[in-house]
Amino acid sequence: MVERVEAAFSSLSDFLWGPPLIALVVGGGVFFLIFSRGLPYRHFGHALAVVAGRHDRPDDPGDINHFQALSTALSGTLGLGNIAGVAVAITMGGPGAIFWMWVTALVGVATKFFTCTSALLYRGYDSQGNLQGGPMYMIREGLGRRWMPLAMFFCIAGLFGTLPIFQINQLTEALRDAILVPADLLTEEQIPWFNFLFGCAIAAVVAAVIFGGICRIGYVASRLVPAMVIAYMLCAVGILALNAAEIPQYLGLIVTDAFSGQAVAGGLLGVMIVGVRQGAFSNEAGIGTEVMALGATKTREPVRAGLVAMIGPVVDTLIVCTCTALVILITGAWVADGEVEGAALTAAAFAEALGGAGPWLVAVLVVLFSMTTMFTFWYYGAKCLGFLVGAEYQHYYKYFYTALVVVGAVATLEVVIYLVTAMYGLMAIPTMIATLLLAPRVMREAQDYFRRRN
Predict the structure, then answer these.
(1) What is the DSSP letter of 125?
(2) What percentage of the chain exceeds 70 in pLDDT?
(3) What is the Cα Rg of the chain in Å?
(4) Is 394 helix (H, G, I), strand (E, B) or coil?
(5) What is this structure's pTM?
(6) Would you give the DSSP letter of residue 261?
(7) Residues sharing a CB contact under 8 Å with residue 245, sequence separation 6 or more, in sequence order
(8) Which residue has the higher pLDDT, 79 or 37?
(9) Which residues fall within 8 angstroms of residue 446, CB to CB, at 6 or more apart?
(10) How many CB atoms lie within 10 A of CB 196?
């Protein structure tokens, strides 16, 4: 039964993430880059100033400030896509998959600017009269009611794509396979019970945060995200500094393997599909989930939200994912541990470099990364449900979401990763179509904003 479910989700994910969707996500990003004449990249310094709070206005409409909005969005992207997702990409597609993750990040800067500016430009009110942002409102308000089926399509995919199953699955695996089993603290017979009880414990913690709403999530994320990124980067950079002489070799391997046609995933197209799919999973550029977090930003200037959003791919994919990939490659864990995958592979790489403290360190960081992502993904799914059936019913999603934390703890990695990536592919279709159609309006708004600023 499990094998049939896994095969079904695998076929769906592979079908969705074929050449047409790659053309839409990557080609769309290239279009935004050319159409804007590199405008987002030229104003990166101003984007950092906005995040620093220099342009915050307490009386602006919205729920959270720019820094909290970025932290909330990053807590969704700077999660296990940077620890487990990179390991999955290397396992499935070889080192060359990282190159295509870089490509999604580079063009994703422009994509995020356009998607999030559109979302703020076309915020709408839910059935309770609250101001909301997200691809569904962007489609309804920007393209008109006749495009409502596209908005509903996004919400249905979003209900499943933002489930917490990948995060809890990898958190459970990292703790179990990297620490407890090797230390003989857990036997094979005890694993099913451990998975279930651990899932229940994490579900209780998640419930304690998500029942506080987006303001509590923004508050928690703005404190946890910077701390966990700094801690993780210190460890990764420390390992790379000790092996600095080998970095050029493995950077070269990433590039050559991407075009060699000898990739694990089955040639150039195979490694490209794996890299773009995992890149989208890592930074969510063009997917539309982070648009819902940025939609809660306190601002009257939609362009500022777009500028804040575009920082995401640089931080989570170009910096954090690259460091993770180099640690896995340099330590040789990707070759030595053929039976290990996901977060456990990253833990094995840190163990190679740091000894016995490595798995414990990764376990702690996996807890932080996965928990902050689970806090944020509830908000995305609830907003999708609220759009479909009414905001007055969206609070019921909290109970469903909390229960799915337990389910994810006992599921297999393959079923989880294929389900989530398939839903990400479905979400990308309406998000990218709407953003491409609204691109001329975004450019007019951006030109007006920078003209007034100058």
Answers:
(1) E
(2) 81
(3) 21
(4) helix
(5) 0.80
(6) S
(7) none
(8) 37
(9) 36, 39, 117, 303, 306
(10) 15
**Cβ-Cβ contacts under 8 Å for 241 (sequence gap 6 or more):** none
Average pLDDT over residues 415-438: 86
Task: Say how many CA atoms lie within 13 Å of 43 toward its Cβ.
Answer: 26
- pLDDT-derived band at 256 (thresholds 50, 70, 90) equals confident
Angle at 302 between CA 153 and CA 304, to 5 degrees: 120
- Residue 452: pLDDT above 60? yes
> If you count them, how many residues does the chain have?
454
Q: Supply the pLDDT for residue 364.
A: 76
Give the C-alpha separation, 174 to 37, whole Å: 43
For strand 124-125 and strand 131-132, is the pairing parallel, antiparallel, or unpaired?
A: antiparallel
267 pLDDT exceeds 70? no
Question: Rounded CA gap, 286 and 104, in Å?
Answer: 10
Rounded Cα distance between 175 and 371, Å, is 14
> Rounded to whole angstroms, how far apart are CA atoms 422 and 13?
4
**358-403 pLDDT tens trace:** 767 777 777 777 777 787 778 888 888 989 988 888 888 888 888 8
Q: What span, in angstroms and rounded, lies between the C-alpha atoms of 192 and 172?
A: 11
More confident residue, 266 or 142: 142
14 pLDDT band, cuts 50/70/90, is confident
- What count of other Cβ atoms lies within 10 Å of the Cβ of residue 3? 10
For tokens 């703790």, the residue is 175
Residue 64 φ/ψ, nearest 5 degrees: -135, 155
List the single range of 92-96, 328-332, 391-395 with lowest mean pLDDT. Answer: 92-96
User: What is the secondary structure of 328-379 as a DSSP string?
Assistant: HHHHTHHHH-TT--THHHHHHHHHHHHTTHHHHHHHHHHHHHHHHHHHHHHH
Q: How far is CA 321 from CA 80, 235, 339, 402, 439, in A?
A: 10, 13, 22, 28, 29
At 174, phi and psi to the nearest 5?
-65, -45
Q: Which has the closest alpha carbon to 137: 149, 129, 125?
A: 125
Query: CA-CA distance, 328 to 185, in Å (whole number)?
Result: 26
**Cα–Cα distance measured from residue 31 to residue 43, given in angstroms and rounded to the nearest whole number:** 18
For the stretch 173-209, pLDDT in tens is: 777 876 777 777 777 778 888 888 888 888 888 887 7
Backbone angles phi, psi at 300, to 5 degrees: -105, 0
The answer to whether residues 25 and 276 touch, using CB atoms and an 8 Å cutoff, is yes
Q: Which two tokens stand for residue 198?
A: 């651990």
